[in-house]
Amino acid sequence: MSKFLDEVLLEAAKDGNLIVLKTALEKGANINAKDGNGKTALIIATERGHIEIINHLKEKGAVIAKEEHIQTNKLPELPSDNIVKEKSQIIPDKNWKIIFSRQCKGLFVMNSDGSRLSNLLNWGEEPDVSPDGTKIVFSSGPHYSDNPVTENEALYYHDQIDSGYSITRVPANEIFFGVHYMDGSPEIYSMDLDGSNLKKLTDDDNVGSSFPKFSPDGSKIAFKRTENHTTQIWIMELKNKRVQQITQVKSISYFYWRFDNNIILADSDNKLFVIDPAGKNIRSLNIFEENDYEPKWSKDGKQIIFCNGNDLFIMDSNGRNRQRLTEISGWIGGWSPDNQWIVFSSRKMNGNGADIFIIRKDGKHEHRLTDLFVEDDHVGGDFDPCWAP
User: Which of 366, 259, 250 is nearest to 304 (CA)?
Assistant: First the structure.
């Protein structure tokens, strides 16, 4: 049992999971246990920049022995207290917030270090925060119904996506629960950052509106509208709610605003284009390689993050200096307000569930901020993370 607890401790130090690490220590794990490479939890946490783990292990008496330094010169020096407390290079500004959606559980907010997690709204998905950090736009999204349905009903409703009803299977007991859209089909809403002042922005009746994104100046939102199995981009002027369709392609897969007020979009064949917000001057992007997707420009326009396969990449805006940052096995959220950090949603440590991660743009100091199965192992994951300055 003690060996198992030691392994749990070391893995928690690697993942930056303070909750699991504390539990392992409370159950009797050896604080100075070593992995197959001769590294203790303290050394592992130090290498990965997990500040909370480092501080907790030090409080509990963990040390790096002198002989460990003699055995190899690859082990890092433990940061001094001054370096540990200087968090600007190791964790982002704690005053920033991260907004995200928990599948069928609504919208959540937390500090950029994962602390002070709270539920803003018990429904909604695909949030985006205004450039001034005061407003959130989001789609209504699905939510769980109170009553289970039979398997036959579930299989039937699974084929009725256009009706705004789908299903999920809870593995523990094979019960199916209905999942409904608030409005029969997705609609766009806005609210203040604290969850107040809720407003409905679209009312489309049997036409799905989703994936709202603020323009760089905050005066407009772009969103996807799906009708007759075809998805296009629409623009809404927030001051008067006037809407205009700006694309007429086969169908839109996804899109994002760029720093220069243009829109990057991918069609159903994953071909990338750029278009202005008036729907004119559409042109192909030729700086990407095959299978690159979800490109997002930094706010200063100097760099681009994007995915290829299961990996997260970064490169200069001219296509040079392409570098792999980490495995993502998920979806990019976006750039931090200072263009130094990236938030993303990933399944790489949680099986069928997804958690929120952050990483510096140099590929260092990756932190896992949520651990969904600790709180609720029936929910599919944490998605759609975005920063609030």
Answer: 259
Q: Specify which residues 142 forms β-bridges with.
A: 181
Give residue 218's Cα distance to chain centre. 21
Instruction: Give residue-wise pLDDT tens across range 24-48.
Output: 888 888 999 998 888 899 988 887 7
What type of residue is 52? Answer: E
d(CA 154, CA 167): 6
Backbone angles phi, psi at 300, to 5 degrees: -95, 0
Which of these CATH numbers, 3.30.70.20, 3.60.15.10, 2.120.10.30, 3.90.950.10, describes 92-122+289-389?
A: 2.120.10.30
Q: How confident is the model at residue 166, as a pLDDT?
A: 40
Structure confidence at residue 183 (pLDDT)? 61
Residue ranges of the alpha helices (H) in the chain? 2-15, 18-26, 41-48, 51-59, 66-71, 81-85, 151-158, 372-375
Beta bridge partners of 332: 344
Does residue 140 contact residue 182 with C-beta atoms inside 8 Å? yes
Q: How much is the pLDDT for 262?
A: 94
Burial class (CB in 10 A: 0-12, 13-18, 19+), 196: exposed
Task: List the domain boundaries for the chain.
Answer: 2-85, 92-122+289-389
Cα distance between residue 159 and residue 299, in whole Å? 41
- Quick check: do 2-85 and 92-122+289-389 share a fold? no
Q: Which residues of the chain have pLDDT under 70?
A: 1, 65-89, 142-184, 206, 350-352, 372-380
Amino acid at 330: G
**pLDDT tens digits for range 338-360:** 999 999 999 887 666 789 999 99
**CATH number for region 2-85:** 1.25.40.20
User: Terminal CA-to-CA distance of the chain, rounded, Å?
Assistant: 45
Please give the DSSP secondary-structure letter assigned to residue 172.
T
Q: How far is 196 from 153, CA to CA, in rounded Å?
A: 36
348 Cβ contact list (under 8 Å, min separation 6):
310, 327, 328, 329, 330
Give pLDDT, residue 20.
77
Residue with tokens 């200069």: 316
Contact predicate 315/323, CB 8 Å: yes
